[in-house]
Amino acid sequence: MEKSVVVMFFCCFTFLLKAQDSLCVFKLNGSAYAKTTNKLQPLSKGKFINKNQTLILDSSSKLTAINASGEAYKVESNGQFKFKDILKLKTQQSGSLTSKYFKVIWDEFVKKEEGSTVIGGVFRGDILMEFPKDSVMLASSKLTFSWKTNEVDSSYYVFVRNKKTDEMLKLATNGNQISLYKTQPFFSEDNTFEWAVTTEEFPSLDNLTFYSFELISRNQYAEQVKNYTALLTDLEALGLSDAEIETTICEIYGLCK
């Protein structure tokens, strides 16, 4: 018990140190490096810069970094920048939603660095679905379902159910995705559905985990996205493209175009 407490304390202490003394690369255009004494480490999205390192930015390169509190720092000129110099380049964010978003991104990058995310492996019996995630709204006329695959199974079975009528659509493929169109008669009677993927051809549907999704129009999407105006403004100011911003809204807030 005492050993567990010590381990938990050490992990929390390590995280606090990282949160206070590190920045994480959120976006990078061009090339950048973190220099420690005589060691030069190339940077990319998700890499950390600590207080003992110097940021080296190549000509015409731009870098945006975030901290654990959801604050963003933008470096737009080439040269060498000590950690304290980067902290002077904090951007002005227009809403608290941006900070909340960056906190989520920070946590994901920390988990990735610590190896907390599950990579590879066999997914038999586990949830395979990747997109659309659970409880999302979809405005696209083309619905692309994607899922994780493994080296054991070659066939995957997709079940799409109309939540109003309970009508079921069953599809089979040997790939990791399949596309359907909203113009199909199956999607005409309602706008709320759920889907699941399994490696079993005739599974017990009661034992499957389904992800729900709602079909919305482009006009409904435009109205919903107004709730994120401040975030969109901040992300645009940080140099994200329209496609990157749409992906962000989709992945974090479940509003997909």
Instruction: Describe the main β-sheet briefly.
Output: 6 strands, mixed
User: Largest sheet, order of strands side by side?
Assistant: 13-12-15-16-10-17
Instruction: Please state the overall shape, judged from the principal axes of the Cα atoms.
Output: elongated
Mean pLDDT: 88
Count of individual helical segments = 6
- Helical amount among residues, as a percent range? 25-40%
Quick one: how many beta strands?
Answer: 17
Uncertain ranges: 1-17, 116-125
**Separation of termini?**
49 Å
Description:
This protein is α+β, with helices and mostly antiparallel strands. Helix content is 28%, strand content 32%. The chain contains six helices and 17 strands. The protein has helices at residues 2-21, 83-86, 96-113, 218-225, 229-237, 242-253, and strands at 22-29, 32-36, 39-42, 48-50, 54-57, 62-66, 72-75, 79-82, 129-131, 136-138, 142-147, 156-162, 168-173, 177-181, 192-198, 211-215, 255-256. Strand 6 (62-66) and strand 7 form a beta hairpin. Helix 3 crosses helix 5 (229-237). The radius of gyration is 22 Å and the shape is elongated.
Brief summary of the model shown:
The chain is α+β, with helices and mostly antiparallel strands and 257 residues long.
Which descriptors apply to this entry?
257 residues, alpha+beta, six-stranded mixed β-sheet, four-stranded antiparallel β-sheet, 6 helices, elongated, disordered N terminus
Per-chain topology:
Layout lengths: L1 H20 E8 L2 E5 L2 E4 L5 E3 L3 E4 L4 E5 L5 E4 L3 E4 H4 L9 H18 L15 E3 L4 E3 L3 E6 L8 E7 L5 E6 L3 E5 L10 E7 L12 E5 L2 H8 L3 H9 L4 H12 L1 E2 L1
Parallel strand pairs: 10-16, 10-17
Antiparallel strand pairs: 1-4, 1-6, 2-3, 2-5, 5-8, 6-7, 9-11, 11-14, 12-13, 12-15, 15-16
